Amino acid sequence: MLEEAGEEVLGSVLLKASCLPLSFLLVLPAVLLLLLGPPPASAAHEFTVYRMQQYELGGQAYGTRNAVLNTEARTVEADVLSRRCVMMRLKDFSYEQYQKALRQSAGAVVIILPQNMLSVPQDVIRQFMEIEPEMLAMETIVPVYFAEEDKELLSIYEQTQAASASQGSASAAEVLLHTATANGFQMVTSGAQSKAVSDWLITSVEGRLTGLGGEDLPTIVIVAHYDSFGVAPWLSHGADSNGSGVAVLLELARLFSRLYTYKRTHAGYNLLFFASGGGKFNYQGTKRWLEDNLDHTDSSLLQDNVAFVLCLDTLGRGNSIHLHVSKPPKEGTLQHAFLMELELVVAHQFPEVRFSMVHKKINLAEDMLAWEHERFAIRRLPSFTVSHLESHRDSLRNSIMDARARVDPRILTRNTQIIMEALTRVIYNLTEKVAYISFFFWGEKWGIIIIIIIIIIIIIIMIGYNCIILGFIVNTLSLFWGGKSGIIIIIMIIIGFNCT
C-alpha cells in the first residue's frame, strides 16, 4: 500500500511538473543567477593614465575633447565596442583598430605602453610615430588615455582579452553564463572634465655676451626651443627634439663665456643666446620675442647689426648634419663664411659625417612653419637651422617615442664640436690663417696618399730622372686637385730645390 501510494504521489508530481509553462523554464536560470549573486569583486587596482593632447591652434582643434571615463573594459577583439573602454597594447596597436573603436562609439580608448621602450622592435616604434600626428589631427569626443604597463595591468588586459575573444563565437546561453561567472573590469577615472586654458604663459630665456670694441658690433644669435611634444603631453620627453639642441646651446654659451673672459680671446662680436618656449606651437615664443625686440623697443641687439641667426634643432643622433636655409647665403656674407667653415670642419675632421645644405622656401599657407629659422627669415633676419634631420616632416620631432635612450652622447658631443669649431673660425677670423695647413687635416686616407706621392717624387729625383718628367707630374696633380694648392706648392718646392 505504501509503495503504491508512493508511486501515485511521484506520478502526480511528475505530471504537475510537465504542465509548467515554457516561460518558467526560461526565467528560472536568470532567477537562480540573481539568487546566487555575482562573484565577489577583486580588490581595485589603481594605475596612472596620461590623456591625449587637447588644444587649438589657428582655430583648428586637435586631440580629444573628453576626459571622463566610467565604463566596462573590452579589447579590440570584441564584436561590440559601443560604450566600452577599449584596451590596446602598443605591440598590437594599429590605426585601423583605433578607427574601429571610434567608429563604434567606444566609451574610451586606453593604449598600454611597455615600461622598457628599448625592448620594442624598431618597426613598431616607427609605425606608432607615424600614427601619432594622425591621431591628433582627428578630433574626437572619445577619451583617449595612455598607461605604462605593469604586472597587474597586464593581468587585467589578458583576462579582458580572453573574455572579449570568447564572446564572439559563444551561444547566447554561454554568453549569459560567462557574464555571471567571469571577471569583469570597470574602468573609472578620478579626474574631472577638462577645461580650456584661456591664457597660457610661455617662458623664454635670453642671455648675451658683449663683444670687445665699438658700439656697432655685429651680433650672432644662437637659438634653440626647449619644448617637447607628443600625443600625450606628460609622456613627451623630447630628448632629441629638442633636448639635444638646448644641450648644444648651453655648451656653446659655456665655452664662449670662458673665451670672452680674457682680453686676448674677447672677440668683436656680440653673442645672443635664446632658449625659446612654445616651439612646438608654431614657435610662438620666438614670434613674441621678435615682436618685443623689433616692434616695441627702441634699442635692441636685433635691430642694430645681426650677422646671422643660428637655430639648433635635433642634434643627438645620426651621421648627417644638414644646414636648412630659406634662402641660400650669398658669397661674401658671414652666413656664407659659416656655411663654408661648417663644410670644411666636417670634411677635414669628421669625414664619416655627411653634410649638406637643404634649401626650402617658406610656405606661409601652411598652418605650421617648418623650422625655427623661418620665424627670423620672415622678419628679414639672415638665419638657418642645423639638424641631423633632412626633412622637417620627420615624425621623430613630435613623438612620445623620443626618449632619452634615443640620444647618443658621443654623437651629441661630436656635433657640438663641429658647430663650435665652425663658429670659432668665423668669429675669430681664422679662415685664412688655417687655410695653408688645412690639407694636413684631410684624414687618414688623404694623408697616406700625400705621403706616398712625396716619397715617389723623391725617389724619382734620387734615381736621376730629369725635371721635365717631374714638371709633368706637377701639372697632372694640379689638374687633379684643383684648389688644393697647398700640396702643389710643397711638391714644387721639393722639385725646385733638387732641380736647381
UniProtKB/TrEMBL annotation:
Protein localization: Endoplasmic reticulum membrane
Q: Where is the Peptidase M28 domain?
A: 218-352
Q: Which SUPFAM superfamilies match?
A: Zn-dependent exopeptidases
Single GO biological process annotation from the record: regulation of signal transduction
Q: Where are the transmembrane segments?
A: 20-37, 446-473, 479-499
The membrane-topology field of this record reads:
Single-pass membrane protein
Q: Mostly located where?
A: endoplasmic reticulum
InterPro entries, sorted: Nicalin (IPR016574), Peptidase_M28 (IPR007484)
GO cellular component annotations of the record: endoplasmic reticulum membrane
Give the keywords, sorted: Endoplasmic reticulum, Glycoprotein, Membrane, Signal, Transmembrane, Transmembrane helix
Pfam families in UniProt: Peptidase_M28
Query: What family does the Swiss-Prot or TrEMBL record give for this protein?
Result: Belongs to the nicastrin family.
Q: Which PANTHER family match?
A: NICALIN
Give the protein's recorded name.
Answer: BOS complex subunit NCLN
**The species this protein was found in:** Anolis carolinensis (Green anole)
